[in-house]
Design a protein that fits this description.
Layout lengths: L7 H4 L13 H12 L10 E6 L2 H7 L9 H4 L2 E7 L7 H18 L3 E6 L11 H9 L6 E9 L30
Antiparallel strand pairs: 1-2, 2-4, 3-4
The protein binds flavin mononucleotide.
The site of flavin mononucleotide has 9 residues, from strand 3.
């Protein structure tokens, strides 16, 4: 059978360095569309996406964690993924799938992006990152910031994944097997 695996799946990487070029507005719309098209349990779609372009707010968001949030400072825009626990008992999974769809669609459009974890993360003074994000963006109580997808035109090249390096030992056929499975 022909290999119909999307080559983008090998080329996709987290991109954390961005040029100053703005992202085409149609591309931004398509990235958000991908999030809105994501599957969710019982089709509850318990998410909201906040698009942030204000440089001062991006700079503040980039400091919401001890480590791992600096890419936000240099991105063209950030998509803050917020979930509503009232709308679904699996809101974290639902919001995460939507975030992954946006990350993949960004890649398909040549836009670099990176998932920045917010839930369960803390800043240098041990303040919850979610509390900082909530206050910077006026997110109502009850809604939970899950992650931020930083987006920008790539200013770094990453090598495609070597198919030989895939961890096939983590695939188990029929039942749990330890050691070689395929
Ligand atoms: C749930 C999750 C949380 C992540 N959190 C961060 C983060 O806070 N900061 C960051 O720079 N990258 C973060 N990443 C990106 C990972 O570091 C990255 O996916 C991993 O190193 C593999 O690299 P690749 O995406 O280029 O294949 C996160 C990814 C996921 C899926």
């Amino acid at each position: 059978m022909d290999n119909l695996l999307n080559p983008m799946l090998f080329e996709r990487h987290s991109i954390r360095k961005y040029t100053d070029r703005p992202i085409d507005s149609e591309a931004v719309k398509q990235i958000l569309e991908a999030g809105l098209l994501a599957p969710s349990s019982k089709s509850a779609r318990p998410w909201h996406f906040i698009v942030v372009e204000d440089r001062a707010i991006l700079e503040a968001l980039s400091k919401c964690k001890k480590i791992g949030s600096r890419p936000i400072a240099g991105c063209a825009l950030a998509i803050v993924v917020v979930a509503d626990p009232e709308k679904s008992d699996v809101y974290i999974e639902d919001a995460s799938v939507a975030a992954a769809f946006m990350h993949l669609q960004a890649c398909a459009l040549g836009v670099g992006s990176c998932w920045i974890q917010i839930r369960n993360r803390f800043d240098a003074a041990d303040v919850p990152a979610a509390r900082i994000v909530r206050s910077l963006l006026n997110i109502p109580d009850g809604l939970e910031p899950i992650c931020i997808i930083s987006c920008g035109m790539p200013d770094e090249q990453r090598r495609a994944v070597d198919p030989e390096k895939l961890e096939w030992q983590k695939v188990h056929i029929g039942e749990w097997t330890s050691g070689e499975s395929l």
